[in-house]
Amino acid sequence: KQQTNLIYQSIMDKNFQEEQFTGITKFTPPLCKQRYQFIKDLVEKYKPKKVADLGCADCTLLWMLKFCSCIEVLAGLDICASVMKEKMHRLSPLPVDYLQPPERSLTVILLHGSVAHKDPCMLGFDLVTCIELIEHLEESELKKFPEVVFGFMAPSLVVISTPNSEFNPLLPGVTLFRHPDHKFEWNQVQFQSWSLEIARQYGYSVEFTGVGHPPTGMENVGFCTQIGVFVKKYPQTSESAQSETPTEGVYKTVTYDNDKHFVFFYVVKVFRAVYPSLKDEKYLQNAVVSEVIFTAQIIKRRLLDRLMSEHEEYNDDTTERKSKFQLLMNCFSEDLGKLVVEKSMEPFVKGKVVYIPLRTIFSFPKVNQLCSTFEKLCKLIATKVTLSSDGSAVMFNIEHENKEN
Amino acid sequence: MRFAMLKEHRAVTGDVTAFDGSILYLPILLPQVSMKVQRRSDGEEITITIQITKILEPSSDLCIPFYNVVFRRAMRILGMKLVGRNFYEPTQATILHHHRVQIWPGYSVSIRKKDGGLFLLVDAIHKIIRSDSVLNFMHAIYKQSLSSFQDECIKQVVGSTVITRYNNRTYRIDDIDWNKTPRHSFTMASGEEITFVDYYSKAYGITIRELDQPLLIHRPREKQTPEGRVSQGGELKVPPTSHPGGFPNRLLPLQEVMREVLQSPQQHYTRLTSLLRRIRDSPEASRELMRWGLSLDTDIHRTQGRILPMERINLRHGSFIPTEDLSWNKEVTREASISAITMNYWLLVYPKRLQDLVKDLVATMKNVCGPIGMHISQPALVELKDDRIETYIKTIRSILGSEDKVQLLLCIISSNREDLYGAIKKLCCVQIPVPSQVINVQSLMGQPGKMKSVVQKVLLQINCKLGGNTWNWGLCLSKQLMVIGMDIYHSHSRGTRSVIGFVASMNHVLTKWYSRVVFQMPHQEIADSLRLCLADTLQHFHEMNHCLPQKIVLYRDGVSDSQLNTVLKYEIPQMQKCFDAFENYQPSMVVVVVQKQISTNFYTLTAEKFASPPPGTVIDHTVTSSDWQDFFLLAHHSRQGCGIPTRYVCVLNTANLSFEHLQRVVGTCSLYWGSWEGS
Q1: By C-alpha distance, which of B460, B335, B351 is closest to B413?
Q2: Which domain of life is it from (chain A) (predicted)?
Q3: Which among A121, A379, B155, B305 could bridge B619 via Cys, Cβ 3.0 to 4.6 Å?
Q4: Does B165 contact chain A (CB < 8 Å)?
């Protein structure tokens, strides 16, 4: 069953060291972090619900964005599946996320594919980010890119960042391009004219900014990374296109490692994580039941404390007191019981059972907030909480409680 | 850089690689290759030469860590969540709403090499976790007890394990820092000062809303490097927004949790095979394993065990062979014990409201003591006006202070109160030494016959505590044998000293014992000062028996596999050194390490159904270690749950005890009265 495993020793003929930028330009925090922070700030400002990161690489930006509470769908697309998969487990929900699921739902999807192809998977996003992406595109891909992102996806907000070649002389060790895979690096005029042309064509306005300030005295060089922020001019023009959610399930799951199987698909889903949230009936039910029992316990304790203190007798004999208490509770329920039931909001004791009306529990803000209508409350807790025969009150056995203490 | 450059040559090496920077592990055979790569940083051309150095056997020790990494990856593919070292499924949680507690089913998995080859060790486990964060929990405590809030928090929170919300790490809480809030700053590894609020917002995008919460302190163990994260003088601070995971035992709503967690052998088996099936059914998970050539059996491993012969039990006038479930209640409660102590002067302490019950109790005791062979006089009754701890302690102390002939102190308490029990035991074991017995009154109430059977058991226990001898074993133990038990207790809270408990038998029937307690610095498992301890013990043995033991059997508890060598190379020589203190003394010695918390379960297959194996089941092959002499023994009858065997590792055997004899000795010793289920 076992294949033999072999050890190889690799010998490299040069003493190698991590590349080190020693010159004048060293950014703190590192430039890539500044780029991500820029996006995060933008998300905090515009509060998009659906965000796609094109060219998401090792998913670091997606990982940062998953903590933003406005986002409900987070998608990453990259041409290289193995880079995406390397750290994709970071995007899975943590065990702790299941303990107190939040109100918002969150789905994280990773797609393997090219930005040069239109695919229905990529529809419906509010914000599309392309961080250091375009300079990796071949000429033919770059040509199709605006039509895919601005024409087809048409989100209300697009962010594109790319190196500013004018800054390169300030970076030590950079001869031609900053990265061997770069197909081009533009200066400010090139990037801005390309962007303005796209903005004009697809009805966006664009503003230019960047991260990585040039040294003083050389301000005309511009930012190390140039960024264009595109805002759609008439965001709600095509209602139908906007409401379209990413169509999932249209595509069969195929073995994504083996290319020949999906020549007909442009984009293949590599990863999908659905975070637990109160939008999911199961978690909502858990949360409501938990809150109902918690609230009911508080009310019960208050009631019992009140009864005890009202009729506390200064008698040291505990057994006697206990029986008196029992007696008291019985008469309490007999004499006042009916009256209180009429009111239907007051908790009451009958025999060894405390009844806490659901209406009372529903009036507590947390419960109210969770299930908005009383009918929903009843429906959610119906099978999970012990209710009185008419289903109007939560029942607690006092004896059971005393033993516990 | 090396990693990236090698990665570009996937075409040569294949997709399945493991590279640690200089050694490359591959599942395929490559001819010697040289490749040219361009270094990205400066464009210089680098030559990579790969040459074969070694072919590893599939079960080579070097491969095991890989298999574990690979298997963990497969578990993750199945959607399991890693918490600490084990995998859980929060989506399958059972929720105990009344206690705000969740129970997550999970698995502890590891691939290990055993005598029988490579094994996947799986145990079906559960994680019990509070739904509330520590902060919410503290709020709840605050509402209940305003005055003793901080004390109560420390009592309830310290010692438990928390899981952080942002990065899934688990920390044990060692203390609470009431003087610090998230607004305080700490120094990061880079030397930068940053407040906790800023740190969490920057690193994780988390906004801490409650700025006045205290901080929880975790002190990493000495052997772990603090890794310089949020560390401050070796302390790690976590805001209480994290969730408590592990509970100190005392806080568990035990009954309800046990109901959920207990699994019959059949249920346990079903969970194990369902894991195997899920891996098989997931193409992605099985592919992950196949990449390194791992494939799993479709079923658990089945092997043959042995059952130790039942040893004869001797009473004063007769003997019998116990039944299979090892309950010899009937025999021992009807026949006279080998030696019984007469209780002439003893105290019975009880709160006033239980006076009627106490009358019954004394009458029952007088009834049942006859057949056992004990004689019990009327106790000195001590009635307490209430059942507060202070009342108990004050009264007991004042009586014991003036009386010194008290044989036994019997306390009746009204409920299962651990604090009261602890206080009484502390008083009677440490401050004013006197044999004591505490009975929870609830165990005496119930069905009519219940009191009688409880009293019988308690009397046998009292007899032993007073030095009597209820029964002994037919197995011949040498007259010059000494059995030693040793364990170390680590306190979880506040870096206090660890305690070594040391008991040694003083007669061959193992009814008289000598005990010592030694203190040790925190988290130092291997006991120092053993030499003195053992020398004292031998001295004592000599005083009592006028000879020294020729054979010493030492049971050492609480040693993990990685520490076995330390026991062998450090502890044992230390103890052996003390033999020099006696003239011409060279006793033979057997050292057995006892491991109780091992995730191994045995079941027997009886008529197509799985059941707990009978007591005395031994397995000493296939699943045993290839490095040590060890065996698994299930000494007791398990009424609930699965049979969890104890693993015994024999690290030293100069007595030339045969393995089978050793198993019988161990099996017998583990049935000594203290661990007899009936007591």
Answers
A1: B351
A2: Eukaryota
A3: B305
A4: yes
Bridge-based pairing state of the strands B617-619 and B306-307 = antiparallel
- Interface contact flag, A293 B164, Cβ < 8 Å: no
How many C-beta neighbours within 10 Å does residue B110 have? 17
Q: What are phi and psi of B224, to 5 degrees?
A: -80, 140
Nearest CA in chain B to A270: B284
* Residue B551 contacts residue B588 (beta carbons within 8 Å): yes
B340-468: in CATH 3.40.470.10: no
Domain total in chain A = 2
pLDDT digits (tens, 9 = 90+) for B17-70: 777 777 777 777 777 777 777 666 666 777 888 888 778 777 777 788 888 888
Tell me which chain A residues have a C-beta less than 8 angstroms from the C-beta of B133.
100
Across the interface, of A6, A316, A385, the residue whose CB is closest to B56 is A6
* A7/B131 CB distance under 8 A: no
More confident of the two residues A278 and B515: A278
Q: Which residues contact B362 (CB under 8 A, 6 or more apart)?
A: B348, B378, B379
In this complex, do A290 and B100 lie within 8 Å of one another by their Cβ atoms?
A: yes
Q: What is the mean pLDDT of residues B619-626?
A: 84
Q: State how far residue A233 is from chain B, nearest Cα, in angstroms.
A: 30
| Residue-range definition of the domain harbouring residue A362 | 281-397
Highest mean pLDDT among A158-162, B32-36, B544-548, B592-596: A158-162
Q: Which helix (H) or strand (E) holds A358?
A: helix A358-362
Indicate the burial class of B191 (C-beta count within 10 angstroms; 0-12, 13-18, 19 or more). exposed
Subunit contact A7:B1, Cβ cutoff 8 A: no
Distance (Å) of CA B78 to CA B71, B87, B281, B428, B567:
11, 10, 10, 54, 40
B24 touches chain A (CB under 8 A): yes
Helix (H) or strand (E) holding B281: helix B265-281
Q: Can you give the pTM of this predicted structure?
A: 0.74
Nearest to B40 among A2, A7, A180 (CB): A180
Q: Verify that A211 and A315 share a domain, yes or no.
A: no
Q: Indicate where chain B has its CATH 3.30.420.10 domain(s).
A: 473-671
Domain B132-250 adopts which CATH fold? Answer: paz domain (2.170.260)
Q: Please tell me whether residues A206 and A140 are part of one structural domain.
A: yes
* Residue ranges of chain B assigned to CATH 3.40.50.2300: 340-468
CB contact under 8 A, A99 and B46: no
How is residue A126 written in tokens? 């509010």
Q: Cβ contacts (< 8 Å) between B48 and chain A: which residues?
A: 10-12
CB A130 within 8 A of CB A161: yes
Interface residue B57 vs chain A (CB under 8 A) = yes
Report DSSP state, residue B476. Answer: -
Q: Which of B66, B97, B129 sits opposite A99 (nearest CB)?
A: B129
DSSP-derived pairing of the beta strands B23-26 and A5-12: antiparallel
How far does the CA of residue B594 sit from the closest CA of chain A (Å)? 34
Nearest to A5 among B51, B56, B166 (CB): B56
